[in-house]
């Protein structure tokens, strides 16, 4: 039996080498790992200002359309909506992977719907999709230390101590995305929210 569902997995981040290691770019990191897991390579989309990779999750599993918008975070919604329309993906099958200030570093959380918590990428997606009912995989980055401006914090690179765990956490976030696709948000919450 082939699963003929299609999921749009949006790794949120900013394009350009200078942003590659930023906390705000963890969505791109997770999308890159998912692409390698499904044996896909990112290429520039002809339909939207984004990089796209397509593959199946497991043998005969659901199709994943992985996208990394190249518009900068606050304009992410436009490429998301045009690719969702092109691939005929309903909002229920859209997953945003993003950094989250309100979740401590080291934790990954799944949820469906809700507010944007000041995240410009989510705000742009919600506006463009005219819905907040897409799934989110929230990669905890914690709050900035001291009086550091949150905007500066998200655009700074992970610390040396954080980088020691980063590969493991990106791997865990990719596992959570796969769990949401295969089993649903609630199942993913039950499995991954313990730690």
TrEMBL record:
Subunit field text: Monomer.
CDD domains, sorted: PTH
Designated name of the protein: Peptidyl-tRNA hydrolase
The keyword Cytoplasm appears for this protein: yes
EC code(s) of this entry: 3.1.1.29
Keyword presence, tRNA-binding: yes
Pfam families: Pept_tRNA_hydro
Catalytic residues, chain numbering: 24
Site positions (Discriminates between blocked and unblocked aminoacyl-tRNA): 14
Catalytic activity: an N-acyl-L-alpha-aminoacyl-tRNA + H2O = an N-acyl-L-amino acid + a tRNA + H(+)
């Amino acid at each position: 039996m082939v699963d003929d569902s299609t999921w749009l997995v949006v790794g949120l981040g900013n394009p350009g080498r200078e942003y590659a290691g930023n906390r705000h770019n963890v969505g791109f990191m997770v999308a890159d790992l998912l692409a390698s897991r499904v044996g896909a390579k990112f290429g520039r989309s002809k339909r939207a200002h984004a990089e796209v990779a397509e593959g199946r999750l497991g043998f005969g599993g659901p199709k994943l359309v992985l996208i990394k918008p190249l518009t900068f975070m606050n304009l992410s919604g436009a490429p998301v909506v045009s690719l969702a329309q092109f691939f005929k993906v309903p909002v229920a099958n859209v997953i945003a992977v993003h950094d989250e200030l309100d979740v401590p570093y080291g934790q990954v959380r799944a949820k469906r719907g809700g507010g944007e918590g000041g995240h410009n990428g989510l705000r742009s997606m919600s506006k463009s999709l005219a819905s907040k009912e897409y799934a989110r995989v929230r990669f905890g980055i914690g709050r900035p230390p001291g009086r550091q401006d949150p905007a500066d914090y998200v655009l700074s690179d992970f610390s040396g101590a954080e980088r020691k765990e980063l590969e493991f956490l990106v791997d865990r976030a990719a596992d959570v995305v796969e769990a949401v696709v295969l089993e649903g948000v609630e199942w993913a919450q039950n499995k991954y929210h313990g730690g």
